[in-house]
Design brief:
The strands form four sheets. Strands 6-5-2-3-4-10-7 form a seven-stranded antiparallel sheet. The chain has a six-stranded antiparallel β-barrel with strand order 11-12-13-16-15-14. A two-stranded antiparallel ribbon has the order 8-9. With about 325 residues, the chain is mainly β. Among the domains are: about 90 residues, Trypsin-like serine proteases (Thrombin, subunit H); about 60 residues, no CATH class. About 10% of the residues lie in helices and about 30% in strands.
Length: about 325
């Protein structure tokens, strides 16, 4: 890939600012290209199936899918330079209706989502995405942004995985917005974090609610991430193209894995009482991942899903 082509890549969102080094979240990867004896980190992505990396459309909007497949890489690990693994791609999908906003809303984005298909299944577990609607009742929710972006507006420090807590402050159009002033640490995303996940702990899983999209220059005011609940249909269409099904629990082998996943398309055996009976008597044999807004809300109301206990996905 030529230098001119690389320089054309937009960098709307900055690296994690006022965050911390992040040794966990193996599903989150650095995206970029080999650069001589080194690597050039461009954006961040997150595995939602063994073969699909979810990222931002603006990361590759000026580059055709063939170039991404030919030259692009995903690096697994705490740093892009000293990665534990290097993954290649066989296909790429940019949302056809992706658009940058016009003043005074620039760099306001629309449909800022991309799906990158790996050449071979990744060696680590994927994470779920939020598909049920996020509502105003969830304002104030603590989120966690993970990315390989810069540590300040000068663009320095990219290629190292960091995380920062954000507070959901506003639902604006297709975006989850977080303001630095709402959190005592003032954490924000920055250049290079674009495409990275914004997680929320739901039960015992970390669920991706947003895809880091944009913020103000300097990376100290607010950050905005594209809502997966609003673009879920397009994402699942791509999942079906790749895997032959839209059921993420089927693709990721989450049925019967010992954790009750209330968001699955079908009945997760782990959500049933001992013995596999669907009756009301008894206790769940699995631990509940999330019942929020899912098809198992009735079971949750009946107490079949049990008490939620938080387990970090950072293993």
């Amino acid at each position: 890939m030529t230098a001119a082509l690389l320089l054309a890549l937009p960098a709307l969102a900055a690296p994690v600012v006022n965050g911390q080094l992040e040794p966990g979240f193996p599903s989150t990867v650095s995206l970029g290209v080999p650069w001589g004896a080194s690597v050039l980190h461009v954006c961040t992505g997150n595995l939602i199936t063994p073969e699909i990396v979810l990222s931002a459309a603006h990361c590759g909007d000026d580059v055709n899918a063939e170039a991404i497949v030919a030259f692009g890489r995903a690096w697994v690990g705490e740093t892009a330079r000293d990665a534990d693994d290097e993954l290649t791609f066989r296909d790429a999908f940019i949302h056809p209706d992706f658009a940058l906003g016009t003043p005074p809303f620039e760099p306001f984005t629309e449909n800022d989502v991309a799906v990158l298909v790996l050449a071979e299944p990744a060696p680590m577990e994927a994470t779920p995405i939020r598909l049920t609607p996020v509502t105003d009742a969830e304002l104030g929710t603590t989120m966690l942004a993970v990315g390989y972006g810069a540590t300040g507006g000068d663009g320095q420090g990219t290629g190292v995985k960091r995380s920062a807590e954000l507070i959901l402050g506003e639902l604006e159009y297709q975006h989850l917005k977080a303001y630095a002033s709402d959190h005592p640490d003032g954490g924000m995303t920055c250049q290079g974090d674009s495409g990275g996940p914004v997680f929320v702990s739901e039960g015992e899983r970390q669920v991706e609610w947003g895809i880091t999209s944009f913020g103000l220059e300097g990376c100290t005011n607010f950050s905005a991430s594209t809502r997966t609940d609003l673009l879920g249909d397009w994402i699942l269409d791509r999942v079906e193209e790749v895997h032959g099904t839209r059921d993420l629990c089927d693709v990721n082998a989450w049925y019967g894995d010992g954790l009750c996943d209330a968001f699955c398309d079908e009945v997760d055996p782990d959500c049933l009482p001992e013995g596999g009976d669907s009756g009301i008597e008894g206790s769940p044999k699995g631990r509940c991942a999330s019942a929020e807004g899912g098809g198992w809300a009735l079971l949750a109301a009946l107490g079949l899903l049990g008490r939620r206990r938080t387990r970090s996905a950072a293993g």
